[in-house]
Amino acid sequence: MKKPFMLISVLPMTAHISNDADTAGDRTGRMPEEYAFKNKVLRLICFILFLLSFGLNSVFAQVHNATGLVVDENGQPLIGVQIKLEGTTTGVITDVNGNFSISAKKGDILLFSYVGYESQRITYKGEKILAIKMLPNTELLDEVVVIGYGKQKKNSVVSSINAIGPKELAVSSNRNLTNTLAGQVPGLIAVQRSGEPGYDNSEFWIRGVSSFKGGTNPLVLVDGVPRNMQDIEPDEIESFTLLKDAAATAVYGAEGANGVILITSKRGNSQKPKISLRAESTLLTPTRLPEFMNSVETLELYNEALNNEGTASIRTAEEIAKYGPGADRDLYPDTDWLKEMLREHTYNMRYTLNVRGGSERARYFVSGAFYQENGIFKEGKKNEYDNNIGLKRYNLRSNIDFDATKTTLVKVDISGQYLQTNYPGTGTNTIFNSMCRTPSYLMPAEYSDGTIAGHPRPSGNRVNPYNLLVNSGYAKEWRTSIQSKLEVNQKLDFITKGLNWKGLISFDADMKYTAKRTKTPTQYLATGRDENGALQFKKVVEGSDVLTEKLENSSNKKIYFETSFNYNRTFAQKHDVTAMVLYMQKETQYHDNALPYRKQGLVGRATYGYDGRYFVEGNFGYTGSETFAKGFRFGFFPAMGLAWYVSNEPYYPEALKKVVNKLKFRFSIGRTGNDDTGGDRFLYRGTMKQDNGGYNLGFSDTGGMGGIGNGITEARFEAPYLSWEIEEKTNYGIDLGLFDNRIDLQVDYFNNKRKSILLQRNTVSNVTGFQQMPWQNFGIVKNHGVDASLTLNQKIGQVNLSARGNFTFARNEIIEYDQVPQVYPWLEKKGTRLNSNKLYIADGLYTYDDFIINGEGLNRTYELKPGVVSGLSSGVRPGDIKYKDLNGDGKIDSNDQMEDVGNPTVPEIVYGFGFNAEWKGFYVGIFFQGAGNTSTVLGTGADATFFPFQWGIEESAVRSVVADRWTEQNPSQNVMFPRMHSNNFQNNTAASTWWLRDAGFLRLKNIELGYNFDKKLLKKLNIEALRFYIQGNNLYVWDRIKMWDPEQGNNNGGFPYPLNRTFTFGLDFTF
Length: 1071
Hints:
The chain is mainly beta and 1071 residues long. It has a 22-stranded antiparallel β-barrel. The chain has a 5-stranded mixed β-sheet with strand order 10-15-16-13-14. The two termini are 39 Å apart. The relative contact order is 0.11.
């Protein structure tokens, strides 16, 4: 560029010298004519060259190579910032050090944009080096939210939607994504009942339970495709969105009644490859385990129970003392089954590797993960196989986006999960059940000489729990899941601006293979010792060490297809219009079913927004189901929503805006549907039973009964008029931003009604001749409540503080129920809540004053005084539970049970709150999760594992809490357990308010401490980010049950596979 400048500047000077030479030849001053002409020509050439020189100099002066550095609010370089020349397609991105270089000229407008930061518009003035500082904008982080079949600007959303990101999902080291959701999102109720690896899914509902039949789980879509979510690696997730009201879920038609969960995986972007690696090592220990009585306490308690019934003790004090300290544990065991069979702690590990990057035309996100978890069971010392629970999971994902043309975007996604699990030969529920039903005095886990110990009187429930764990073999399970998706987005601006078409097809396959190798070994009972001190045995179980094998497999495949036209355009910078019409079809084929499950639907949506202030949306889902007959097969599910962004009004006071900078009201109404019948299909067609005994309708070839037609009767009665279960939904919402969005609040009130519930009638009389109860649309359930979320952000000096919380209250009520009219109002299901308790009402314990007592000691007899109500069982005495006689007939029976006592087993209130602080790279976070308005009834459904001696002393491991009981020496009403009995005594074990407990709790869910290394230091090592952290989960729980983790309910008497308390050390770096 410099050479032309020099040449052009010299030429006029040369011409000037030549001109002087010419004039020197004419001393008289008169110019010859030919020279005059040449002089004019030369001057004209010089003038033209001068103009050319000026123009070229101007052009070359305008074009520059603009270079610069982009940093964040802390002065740290930002990678991947997009810089574009306004009005052109020219653009670049910053490198790993935040540097960029772009060709520009003075006056050009440079546009700087980066996710989560305010865009900047810079006029280039010819600076040699540009220094750009990007400032974060919390509003831009969620400017666009994921909605049903698309995305939408957050300020235009009229429906009830909540979203969380990877940071919130990473609060737990748990493998299962469903177990990290409790307390995280308003409107979502999640309860984890088991900690067993591979089978630890949480139950979850959106805005509570709304049906007394099946089909209450929400629809889950991963990248727009119906899929399971429990084994998705959290590091793969970009956003997790909850759709709650009709305006958000009606587009899903038949599957939107229970709410919708949308999970979006991460995708690539236009930047140099960014590699992220995370490694975690975790220590696990059970949150809470029950405690049991020792042998001496158990045997003394059983004597007490016998004495209470007027029976003499079966063991003397001297005999019981032999089981005390210092005893020969082979002959007088005191076995602590938990100590013998469970570890105090175990461990798991997780490694994830992500690569993210791409060019302007092609972008990619590739992820791989490995997770390993070990169970809390102990392994057998002599086994050649592993009897502990163990799980290994491998995750892979590849999301690729490429621009086939300037108007065509193609997305190709492939992902998969491979799980390998190991289990004992006996199911874990059976093992834990046996631990609760085997007393410590019966046998050791294993004899000291290694001989396998057996139960003295073996039977189905009378076993050695240790043998079930260690000596029953093992099982292995392999689960493979593959998901694939192809999506094409085509802009159709040549038809009209803002129009585009999308096509999507996915194919998923799930396979499961199980190999179970089991045995029942020969078992012995020690009867004494010989003169040499060696144990003497008798055989109690004849078995074998040969492992028998059982193989099983299952599989399914799913195909999903979707095509849509979308329109998005803004007119006159004030009128925002969007529209969508979509067709979907899906098919699921199970290996053991000849016919695939199919469903298809048509979806439509239109929205209009005016000037960022007024918004209206209408949408519908039109879905067809194979369950119903023609004429009833398709359901139409419309919804509409309105929103008013008050704070965007021109008349909104500026003074108020400084305090309430965002004020938005929302309203939606609509209906959704449900066709879930629990697997029953084609209900409009009747079926026949072919082996119904006693219906000898045919004749054999010998003339006798039987033969063709024998045993054929009607089975399922056809239901040609069966149709959709409908849920009508109404939602009122308000969004508030206070003090420049430092405080953000969202509150929603919902009122839903589920009607025409799909069920088999219970109240059809048997005299009608139905072999199966007919299907019908019957029943109404109302569900209403409030959910809310709150976030706070504040910076004090160099300390960034934040807090968040959410709250959900959801209460249902049965309006119509399939029940015959009841004699007494307290027996009516109508007006009660789902999952509520039907209980007898305890009125304390019987006292001595309630009886006429004759005799002494074991010969005492007890007769109830006149006017004192009798018990559920005959033979009640002081210390047994007394019940209220609700109908006043002088006796206690089923008419004295009351519906909806206490609170439901599914929490009506779920909440979570947490706090975070950051300072110079250090950060700390704490999160609490809680549940309220929920009850449990101790012993319900598992009386033999909770109540002492339900099947006698040989099938009862007594809980330590039984020490708090009524005795003749302690005839108190303020005890936990009533009078002891030596066998099942229904009066004291029936479900009643005596055993009703508040199951609400507050859990310290997570604490995390970490440090982010300084980026300037890392830059020298070519590392973008590096952090290490220590994390604790399920650290403590405040509750009123105390005996077990309250979240697990009372399954197996509160002793299923326990939940885990975890301590994690992690390292996360990006380069």
